[in-house]
Design a protein that fits this description.
The structure is a homodimer. By secondary structure, chain A is an alpha+beta fold. Chain A is built from 17 helices and 19 strands. In chain A, strands 12, 13, 14, 15, 16, 17, 18 and 19 form an 8-stranded antiparallel beta sheet that branches. In chain A, strands 5-6-10-8-9 form a 5-stranded antiparallel beta sheet. In chain A, a hairpin with a 4-residue loop joins β8 and β9.
Chain lengths: 465, 465
Amino acid sequence: MTAPLLRRTQMSDAVILGLKERFGARVSTAAAVREQHGKDESYHAPQRPDAVVFARSTDDVVDIVKLCAAHQTPVIPFGTGTSLEGHVAALEGGVCVDLSAMNRVLRVSAADLDCTVEAGVTRKQLNTHLRDTGLFFPIDPGADASLGGMAATRASGTNAVRYGTMRENVLALTVVLADGRVLRTARRARKSAAGYDLTRLFIGSEGTLGVITEVTLRLYGIPEAIMAAVCPFPSVEAAVDTVVATIQAGVPIARIELLDAKQMEAVNKYAKLDHAVAPTLFFEFHGTTRGVEEQVAQVKAFAAEQGGNDFHWAATAEERSKLWQARHDAYYAALALRPGAKGWATDVCVPISRLAECIAETRRDVDQSFVTAVLVGHVGDGNFHLIFVLDPAKPEEFAEASRINDRMVARAIAMDGTCTGEHGIGYGKMDFLIAEHGEGVAVMRSLKHALDPDNIMNPGKIVRM
Amino acid sequence: MTAPLLRRTQMSDAVILGLKERFGARVSTAAAVREQHGKDESYHAPQRPDAVVFARSTDDVVDIVKLCAAHQTPVIPFGTGTSLEGHVAALEGGVCVDLSAMNRVLRVSAADLDCTVEAGVTRKQLNTHLRDTGLFFPIDPGADASLGGMAATRASGTNAVRYGTMRENVLALTVVLADGRVLRTARRARKSAAGYDLTRLFIGSEGTLGVITEVTLRLYGIPEAIMAAVCPFPSVEAAVDTVVATIQAGVPIARIELLDAKQMEAVNKYAKLDHAVAPTLFFEFHGTTRGVEEQVAQVKAFAAEQGGNDFHWAATAEERSKLWQARHDAYYAALALRPGAKGWATDVCVPISRLAECIAETRRDVDQSFVTAVLVGHVGDGNFHLIFVLDPAKPEEFAEASRINDRMVARAIAMDGTCTGEHGIGYGKMDFLIAEHGEGVAVMRSLKHALDPDNIMNPGKIVRM
């Protein structure tokens, strides 16, 4: 796999000189630094930026963007580099803005259940900061991603079935636009009908409309009671049917995650656990003590109907943390199945009534193929990932994975689903976006052109200009 | 109050002729029909369109928009005419597209908890349609508005504290764009990271970016248990503090509404009820039987701390319906306080930690003034309405209301709140939008220009072009 070569011209020396004059040692053109900033955790080919600047404030970002704008130079925001569709690859060269030093929690309001953070604050850092407040921030993609990056990719994760995604949990953003203007997208009111929804426009825009520098987030009280369990099922279908029954009954479950047998085998090996090697659901229940009791009783009844009777409960907070760590490490566990392997995490989401069928047909494709793949999913949302574990020396494996992925995405779209539930488009899914949105991509292009007429903001991502 | 006179030119006869050729008797230029379609329920001056077309399908809307686009003629969508900021006034003349005959429920999926309706279906019509499914759609602005209009204004209402607003409850829209292209904004997956959030772009766009013709909505299972009550409090502050404690404790209350003493007096008179004439909270609790018991116990404890002990429960579904009808009729009840009066419903929303202060300062302004006003609010969201009841023959009353409203909006914005929680901008709040959003209005203008370069879609609303 190689990145498309789109670089327009060598970046102007004036940009580097201007950056060094303004930022001194916070500008790097070292090969290793550029290398690290041009790649994410995906199988997509990386592409180095020409320079990396370590920003410390919105004003820093304004100065970088203005300088780049004056020289038509691309600007690529970088948080933790944990994206999965090549989002940070500098396809046309340019300047990478590393936001990781913008890591201050600016404000927490326990009374309003919200906070404002700089874009480089990670989700774990925020929750550590909140530890003594009785509050938490629920959105958890597997990686300890930055909250700016999570907003930029409309991230979600295991808690989304109850708490929603970044779409529902961002109240406002501070964004540096392509011409250096600073936009605050909204105020802190829980709801507003004041004009176009600028906040949601930038959530999921992947750095192509501006650089997110601050994020105002909703927070939640830590529930009175939390219970977590795993339960194996006789088949993937039985597990999925349990999920569908749970969602359709309106049980306010906090997490309901599927791992298939192969994934459980990987998790056991990776984390030295001894779960049954079978399709397994991971559950978490949040509520009052009595409320959680009720939820558990309902879900156990649904599971029993499907032959899922062997619930193992995490009795302590430590055990619960260990249980979820195993889930969050699923990707790395899958990679460990084949030392030296490269992972390819796919990501479709369908209406829940079609989920069992979509997973079954996808598994049939995998079973009839020679590639290694595990399946894991936020199935309460209808979202799942087939993770290919590929030998980087064997292009035929990538070709086969690509064939299966094409079929899976086409299947999901035909079921009125989406080509990406939470990973985003980056440069890896632009053709799938066209398949899914049709006329909508032309509208997206109009929006991009309106806000970034020179196409300097993370060019080559989401839509081709 | 008179509408700004912005009409560019007399509309071309070719448009009328073209419409009549295509739509026959479904085009009206009768004065009474035009009159009715140029006004909403607000105090803002109406302005008649030049013609009204009664659309029956998305294809009809496409033909209307294409004809209008060819002649640079404004297009104004019309649902039920229950907006509150002059949204339907044809400020530059043009063609009103009446969508009320697009009233088919196209699809209900009980399994996916969603449905698709034509834009003219009203919320009550949908809930009647759903009666036998065990499902309901929760968003309820006071009026029986059309779901297309509710999406267009980002409406909410009494249930938003638990179920969110139209922003959270629309999965996808079908929109006819300014050049006649038909856009489907998204598919039915519960979440997606596939490009820019086109759905949210059109929610709250008030017809200025396109005409919404179909809406895909989330539905909810009717809760096992529903309980509703009213409780008077010794002061507005005591009532608001009860609300704040409830929200901060994370009680998943379905409705928590404030009516001040003057509003309760109006409600009693209008609906022949005998509630205490005191600041009063209206509550509704949704959940399992045990869950509702728990919520009720928590809220009663918070209320008791504030001197609210006299809970009156609605024992039956009929009583509950009567209780909420009284709440929904608040606006009409307020108008009935002064026969022949005109209402002016204001609408601010602030972070809940500032709510008590914002209401207290606003009430002080009213108490020191000569105008009549009642206060009612979706206080769980930090949203409240001061409703002025004005003598249309006395311009000094409107001037005074305007002065108090200016102060209230400035206060809400200074508290990091918004100039409109749910009514929208229309042509009544464009200056407040500038005060609230600053640079954001320029961004909104860029978006508008990108999608409607000739400014034919509901011109003169949200942003000046």
